[in-house]
Amino acid sequence: MNKAVKVRGLRKEYPGHTAVGGIDLDIEQGEVFALLGPNGAGKTTTVEILEGHRKRTKGEVDVLGEDPGTAGRAWRARLGIVLQTANDAAELTVAETVRHFARYYPNPRDTDEVIEKVGLTEKAGARVKSLSGGQRRRVDVALGIIGRPELVFLDEPTTGFDPAARRQFWELIRSLAREGTTILLTTHYLDEAEALADRVAVITRGAIVAEGTPQTLGGRATAEATVRWADEHGAHLERTHFPAKLIRELSADGREPSELTVHRPTLEETYLDLIGEAR
Ligand SMILES: Nc1ncnc2c1ncn2[C@@H]1O[C@H](COP(=O)(O)OP(=O)(O)OP(=O)(O)O)[C@@H](O)[C@H]1O
């Protein structure tokens, strides 16, 4: 499989401060990859270097087969970038804005289809400035995908979305991924990473401290399980690597253990552990 992104030894230094301290990163074509990390960890710096918006201090970077530091307009047209800030073409309507951006690309998607994909069909004729914060964000997403990009960068895409809009957005990302689009997502929502990402990397203080699928990150899948149940003697809790064995024993007499739960670390707990360890 070809790599959409290949990074080796990437460093970004500001005077007196190392924002990114030599990271390696591989993202396969068609993969949804989430970059997680606390504020100031180096996510935006990394992503902006990949987008060609910031110069690196050191390291090798290959995005869609080119070096973002030197790649030209044709390469840029293959990217879709959804920034954190809302767009400011506020006097235009939603449809006019999307149509306007479509002209920058050689092979854009259909404007109406994109507006429908982001759930703004009813607002297509409304001025962008009349939209709510979450609706403006959807316009940003529409502008990020109108050019039929091979690689989409999504920086905290669902900030300000209501729960239903988030779910709808997740469906949109899944449909892009099904079409073969590579997606690099930064998010502070662990449920979002879990719902969408094939793989995640946790970055803190400019270093990647863990990488894997959301299910296995930081040894999550094989972490000790906490089994809780209750019987006539009261409530019980046992931590074990073999919860199935324990439950078999508890139910050996054919009785269903009451209030039985098995808990393994959530992605959020694993993430907080990783961040804590790295502090
Ligand atoms: N232009 C700059 N000059 C100096 N330092 C900078 C500059 N841009 C970013 N930094 C520093 O680099 C570090 C990484 O910042 P970055 O924006 O990449 O973090 P982030 O992980 O995206 O954080 P957030 O989750 O808050 O968006 C921070 O300590 C930040 O202060």
TrEMBL record:
Entry keyword Translocase: yes
* Annotated ranges, domain ABC transporter: 5-230
Q: Where in the cell is it found?
A: Cell membrane
What is the protein's major site of localization?
A: membrane
Keyword Nucleotide-binding (UniProt): yes
CDD domains attached to this UniProt entry? ABC_DR_subfamily_A
**Per UniProt, which keywords does this protein have?**
Antibiotic resistance, ATP-binding, Cell membrane, Membrane, Nucleotide-binding, Translocase, Transport
**Which PROSITE patterns does the annotation name?**
ABC_TRANSPORTER_1, ABC_TRANSPORTER_2
Query: What is the protein name given in its UniProt record?
Result: ABC transporter domain-containing protein
SMART domains assigned: AAA
Gene Ontology terms: cellular component:
plasma membrane
UniProt topology in membrane: Peripheral membrane protein
**Gene Ontology terms: biological process:** response to antibiotic
> Could you cite one Gene Ontology molecular function of this protein?
ATP hydrolysis activity
List the source organism: Amycolatopsis japonica
